[in-house]
Write a structure and sequence with these properties.
This protein is mostly beta strands. Helix content is about 0%, strand content about 55%. The radius of gyration is 13 Å and the shape is globular. The mean pLDDT is about 95.
């Protein structure tokens, strides 16, 4: 299983970024995909998820209305569109999938920094 994130960077508050995660090594269309983030000194938190059979999405309250998760099963890719970014969104963002046996797979992460 491989997960490779891209799209992070430095952006001013109220700006936008689009993160992408290209995956391989598993049947992408059969799994829920997740985006997590971890800010310095804080625990990793689940930001958004997208279901595999009906594309139902879920978000933590702090990003609702600003972030949109989407998937492209033809390209084995999951995306996170982030709008109206805030300094508190600064973190390393990780793509995640959980295997049938409960094993968590992670990408290397991509840094998002939002300046005020």
């Amino acid at each position: 299983v491989q997960l490779v994130e891209s799209g992070g960077g430095l952006v001013q508050a109220e700006g936008s970024l689009r993160l992408s995660c290209v995956t391989s090594g598993f049947s992408f269309e059969a799994y829920v995909m997740n985006w997590y983030r971890q800010a310095p000194g804080k625990e990793r938190e689940l930001v958004a998820s997208i279901n595999h059979h009906d594309d139902i999405t879920s978000y933590i309250d702090s990003v609702k209305g600003r972030f949109t998760i989407s998937r492209d099963n033809a390209k084995n890719t999951v995306n996170l569109q982030m709008n109206s970014l805030k300094p508190e969104d600064t973190a390393v963002y990780y793509c995640n999938v959980v295997s049938d046996y409960g094993t968590n797979y992670w990408g290397q992460g991509t840094q998002v920094t939002v300046s005020s």
